[in-house]
User: Which sequence fits this backbone?
């Protein structure tokens, strides 16, 4: 889903007066043009950061000039996206240590939008091709002065970053702390032989087993309190460790970061260089977290760990997750924050395919809400309109709800072809459930376990008379690597069989619900139900506090 489609969805959910208010925010007051600097490692003349005399790298003197400019205006630094004589990545082994001062203006580092067409007589041109400014180093872009000073209001855009080069430990992007941060359109990977990671890494607020009273910042943790961190539209693959790792807090009653958004990323084959294999790992005590519209997959079934692992309360929606060896979406209690940070979370419109089957892990689930005997559980959890298909392993479970967790809405989920139970929950875990489809093709098998009670298709009505246990009849067009493969075919029993949910008006693709006589069960509101896909609006402009769009 692109920005315009997302904005359209927001407008569709609000009355006219609210739409007018949002548009007033999105249409900014005129801003001055950002001051621009240029970097090309192939230039060997006098280096001043101008288009005719670019820098070759960013050192202390260059950062002083950038910081002087930031006092008066936004700044953008263009790194040559391609070589002058051929359309190949411009490459360097010189990392970027971001050493900006924390001022009120935005800094953008751009590795995709311009290139120098002449190494002997610099001539910068706009660029829209596939090449990128490529950095091969230990940690490629490090946002930390080394003195644990937060750096805010910056954008990292459009680089190719090969971390761990030369058999070292490091991340493609490593951010110690700071607010108003955007990482976008980056390709993040690790070199063969890397010894540590992960891919894109925002550091912890409090490191595990560290004191919180009082918190003293160090290079290992930042004490939290930062906000507005966005990681979007990146491609992360073949890493050492997790694809995107967002640190949290292991300190009791200690908040980490807030307003964190991870969206529209493509994450595949992480941890092929070693380490833990979560696609996205969101640690404890972050708040106002949104994880949406990411494509997260493995090339081989039964490998890696969790597609999305979150120990922070979150809205998790519209993600496509395939072939992860443990769970598609794992809601963890990890360190237990004790401050109610996990209540009121929502998991909706996700498609989870072929998870489980790893010999290295138990808990082979589509969606898992864990629990413990300590505080801060997953309470008032809403799990709606997810499609979970082919969870593998003898003890696999489509949706697992721990006895300590509490689900206030379990509606319209399509769970089919599971190795064991389609749903397992504690006896007091489900307060409101209906209109789900639970299906296993083997005749007479038990499909649900609620407490100690097991249900088959024939007695499902004793648990919920509005749920179904029949073949969902997917369309199965194309490849299972595409979400549309799990669209519903004509005549599917899941068509128009769902429960309307006032707070949820769209499906996996952003299409409006309903499209026929009623809501469909599953993540996709089928085209078979009638209606046409909406066209995105035109002429929208980004908010004036986000110079990166």
Assistant:
């Amino acid at each position: 889903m692109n920005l315009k489609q997302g904005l359209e969805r927001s407008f569709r959910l609000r009355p006219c007066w609210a739409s007018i208010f949002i548009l007033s925010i999105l249409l900014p007051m005129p801003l001055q043009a950002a001051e621009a600097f240029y970097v090309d490692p192939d230039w060997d003349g006098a280096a001043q950061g101008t288009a005719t005399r670019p820098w070759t790298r960013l050192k202390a003197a260059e950062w002083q000039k950038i910081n002087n400019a930031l006092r008066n205006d936004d700044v953008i630094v263009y790194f040559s996206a391609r070589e002058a004589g051929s359309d190949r990545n411009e490459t360097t082994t010189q990392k970027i240590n971001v050493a900006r001062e924390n001022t009120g203006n935005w800094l953008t580092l751009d590795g995709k939008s311009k290139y120098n067409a002449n190494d002997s007589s610099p001539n910068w041109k706009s660029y829209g091709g596939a090449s990128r400014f490529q950095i091969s180093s230990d940690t490629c872009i490090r946002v930390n002065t080394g003195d644990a000073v937060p750096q805010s209001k910056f954008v990292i855009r459009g680089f190719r970053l090969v971390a761990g080069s030369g058999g070292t430990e490091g991340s493609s992007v490593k951010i110690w702390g700071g607010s108003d941060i955007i990482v976008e359109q980056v390709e993040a990977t690790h070199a063969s032989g890397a010894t540590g990671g992960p891919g894109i890494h925002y550091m912890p607020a409090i490191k595990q087993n560290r004191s919180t009273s009082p918190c003293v910042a160090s290079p290992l943790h930042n004490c939290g309190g930062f906000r507005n961190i966005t990681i979007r539209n990146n491609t992360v693959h073949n890493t050492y460790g997790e694809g995107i790792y967002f640190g949290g807090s292991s300190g009791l009653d200690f908040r980490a970061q807030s307003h964190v958004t991870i969206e529209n990323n493509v994450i595949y084959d992480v941890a092929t260089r070693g380490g833990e294999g979560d696609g996205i790992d969101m640690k404890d005590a972050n708040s106002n977290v949104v994880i949406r519209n990411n494509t997260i997959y493995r090339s081989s079934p039964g490998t890696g760990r969790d597609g999305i692992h979150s120990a922070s309360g979150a809205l998790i929606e519209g993600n496509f997750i395939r072939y992860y060896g443990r769970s598609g979406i794992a809601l963890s209690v990890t360190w237990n924050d004790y401050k109610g940070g996990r209540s009121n979370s929502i998991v909706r419109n996700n498609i989870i395919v072929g998870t489980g089957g790893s010999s290295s892990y138990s808990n082979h689930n589509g969606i898992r809400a864990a629990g413990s005997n300590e505080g801060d559980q997953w309470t008032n959890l809403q799990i709606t309109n997810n499609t979970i298909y082919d969870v593998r392993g003898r003890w696999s479970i489509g949706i697992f709800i721990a006895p300590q967790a509490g689900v206030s809405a379990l509606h319209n989920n399509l769970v089919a072809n599971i190795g064991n139970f389609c749903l397992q929950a504690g006896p007091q875990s489900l307060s409101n459930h209906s209109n789900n489809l639970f299906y296993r093709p083997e005749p007479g098998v038990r499909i649900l376990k609620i407490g100690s009670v097991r249900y088959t298709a024939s007695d499902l009505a004793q648990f919920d008379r509005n749920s179904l246990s029949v073949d969902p009849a997917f369309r199965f067009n194309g490849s299972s690597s595409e979400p549309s493969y799990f669209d519903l075919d004509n005549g599917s029993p899941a068509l128009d069989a769902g429960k309307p949910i006032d707070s949820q008006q769209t499906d996996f693709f952003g299409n409006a619900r309903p499209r026929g006589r009623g809501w469909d069960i599953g993540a996709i509101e089928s085209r078979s139900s009638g209606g046409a896909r909406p066209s995105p609006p035109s002429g929208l402009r980004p908010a004036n506090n986000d110079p990166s769009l």
Remarks:
- The chain has a mean pLDDT of 88.
- The radius of gyration is 24 Å.
- DSSP finds three helices and 40 strands in the chain.
